């Protein structure tokens, strides 16, 4: 029963963390608050949760990677593909090898394969964490695009490299040829499996709904099961379930552009996935805080064998590892942007203050987070011989410490690097251009259909004048365009008129909703009728908010 209590405490901690981060007068990364709340849980309960690495990996990794792939803008992948590829693949390999050897030199008692595994799992970055830190800042579009795209793929490559290193640590054998062949198999077949499973599920769903219609609950549940189906299918044929989950997310993103999903399904599915993402991310960090005291004790035991049983040595190792990560990342980004410039422009990049600052932003903005933590917690408890996995608690503690240090560093450094007002324009200008392009395309596409529709309506509604239909058409288009305006221009009279109408609509919606609730409380209408009517009013409010 106590384990059930711990689970509820973790969920309450996740809920409380969201409230705390909004109430604090200073900006503190949400993961740090969640780790602290997890530590409080560890102090309250005498027994914590015993994590099964395989179950933990299955529950957390597929949905998070699927969601990353699903929500990753395809134009970002195309525009920044060279930089993303070099960071997501080249930097992971450099980090795994370079940092792995340095960790082994720092801590000789940590076997080299375990050091490689720790270095590999420290290579993935977390765009959710850095976005949370920079939510009140204006992060340049190019920098954020690279961080998001890199994180999508280095999550997968880092986890694949991590699992291969763990396999070497468990079996004690390694062959570069077998490793290369295995990597190609698990990567290519894993990606193919993710694409195939998602496409097949989408095809069956489309045929079924075309004949029998949509059911909202089933639609949402299908999207929740898709990453697990792709992951399980890939793992069954000894391919990479991690890459399958990522490929499934990207495939879902492409299929969704076909517009075959109803608006209500999209809204409910989005709300469900937002909740799941918040809960899973939060659960990982709260679990870390809950497990941290035991992990710290185990790490000290490992350090005692080196006659360095001071906690300061643990902190020193974590700081050194973090600094090495920053140096490797800065060096590789420097090389990467030059390679990209040589390929595209046949010259090296000019390093002015703006370009140098962007390189520093990408280096510092590579915050470690959810995937690193979820991956390192899946280190095996035992070797096949029955012995304890060497240095498991030390590796987990070092990974957790690097995550915390990277979060604090980004929280301090990013605001200092983003003081310039020009960043906001650099961020917003391309987005505004894309909105204008979309509005123009929508108007061009809809103009012909709307004209034909109005002609049909005018022929069947002869009591209404031609001027009336022309006025309605003009007002609908103006309302459509103003809906997407993210600013308020006091010189634009049409926009001011739209704002007046919008506020009046919202006032009517609010008063109507209160009147419906009052009738339901007085039992003059049923609760079911009240809920249905309020749902429609809520959709209108979302539309005009």
TrEMBL record:
Na(+)/H(+) antiporter that extrudes sodium in exchange for external protons. The chain crosses the membrane at residues 6-24, 31-49, 55-72, 84-107, 113-135, 156-177, 183-204, 278-300, 312-339, 359-382, 394-418. This is Na+/H+ antiporter. Coiled coil: none annotated. The keyword Phosphoprotein does not apply. It is a multi-pass membrane protein. Residues 13-418 form the Cation/H+ exchanger transmembrane domain. It is found in: Cell inner membrane; Cell membrane. It holds the Pfam family Na_H_Exchanger. Belongs to the monovalent cation:proton antiporter 1 (CPA1) transporter (TC 2.A.36) family. Keywords: Antiport, Cell inner membrane, Cell membrane, Ion transport, Membrane, Sodium, Sodium transport, Transmembrane, Transmembrane helix, Transport.
């Amino acid at each position: 029963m106590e384990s059930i209590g711990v689970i509820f405490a973790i969920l309450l901690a996740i809920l409380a963390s969201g409230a705390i981060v909004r109430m604090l007068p200073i900006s503190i990364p949400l993961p740090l608050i969640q780790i602290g709340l997890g530590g409080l849980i560890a102090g309250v309960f005498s027994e914590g949760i015993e994590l099964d690495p395989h179950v933990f990996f299955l529950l957390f990794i597929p949905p998070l990677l699927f969601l990353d792939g699903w929500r990753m803008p395809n134009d970002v992948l195309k525009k920044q593909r060279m930089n993303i590829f070099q960071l997501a693949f080249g930097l992971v390999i450099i980090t795994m090898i370079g940092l792995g050897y340095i960790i082994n030199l720092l801590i000789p008692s940590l076997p080299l394969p375990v050091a490689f595994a720790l270095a590999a799992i420290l290579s993935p970055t977390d765009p959710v964490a850095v976005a949370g830190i920079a939510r009140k800042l204006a992060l340049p579009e190019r920098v954020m695009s690279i961080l998001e795209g890199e994180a999508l793929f280095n999550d997968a490559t880092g986890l694949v490299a991590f699992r291969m290193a763990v396999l070497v640590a468990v079996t004690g054998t390694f062959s570069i040829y077998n490793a290369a062949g295995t990597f190609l198999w698990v990567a290519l077949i894993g990606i193919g499996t993710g694409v195939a499973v998602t496409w097949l599920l989408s095809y069956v769903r489309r045929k079924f709904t075309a004949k029998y219609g949509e059911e909202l609950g089933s639609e949402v549940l299908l999207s929740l099961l898709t990453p697990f189906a792709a992951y399980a299918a890939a793992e069954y044929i000894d391919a990479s379930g991690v890459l399958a989950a990522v490929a499934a997310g990207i495939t879902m993103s492409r299929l969704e552009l076909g517009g075959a999903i109803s608006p209500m399904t999209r809204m409910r599915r989005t709300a469900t996935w937002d909740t799941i993402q918040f809960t899973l991310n939060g659960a990982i960090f709260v679990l870390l805080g809950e497990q941290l005291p035991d992990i710290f004790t185990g790490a000290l035991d490992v350090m005692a064998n080196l006659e360095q049983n001071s906690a300061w040595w643990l902190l020193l190792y974590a700081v050194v590892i973090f600094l090495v990560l920053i140096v490797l990342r800065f060096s590789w980004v420097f090389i990467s942007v030059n390679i990209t410039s040589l390929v595209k422009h046949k010259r090296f990049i000019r390093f002015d203050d703006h370009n140098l600052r962007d390189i520093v932003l990408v280096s510092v903005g590579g915050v470690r987070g959810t995937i690193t933590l979820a991956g390192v917690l899946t280190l095996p408890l035992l070797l096949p011989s029955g012995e304890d996995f060497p240095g498991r608690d030390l590796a987990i503690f070092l990974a957790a410490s690097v995550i915390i240090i990277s979060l604090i560093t980004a929280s301090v450094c990013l605001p200092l690097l983003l003081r310039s007002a020009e960043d906001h324009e650099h961020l917003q200008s391309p987005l505004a251009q894309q909105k204008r392009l979309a509005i123009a395309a929508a108007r061009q596409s809809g103009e012909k259909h709307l004209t034909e529709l109005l002609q049909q309506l005018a022929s069947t509604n002869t009591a209404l004048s031609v001027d009336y239909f022309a006025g309605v058409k003009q007002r609908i288009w103006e309302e459509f365009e103003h809906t997407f305006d993210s600013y308020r221009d006091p010189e634009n009279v049409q926009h001011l008129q739209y704002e007046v109408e919008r506020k009046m609509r919202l006032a009517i919606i609010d008063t109507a909703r209160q009147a419906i609730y009052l009738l339901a409380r007085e039992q003059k209408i049923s609760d079911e009728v009240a809920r249905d009517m309020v749902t429609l009013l809520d959709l209108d409010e979302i539309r005009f908010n």
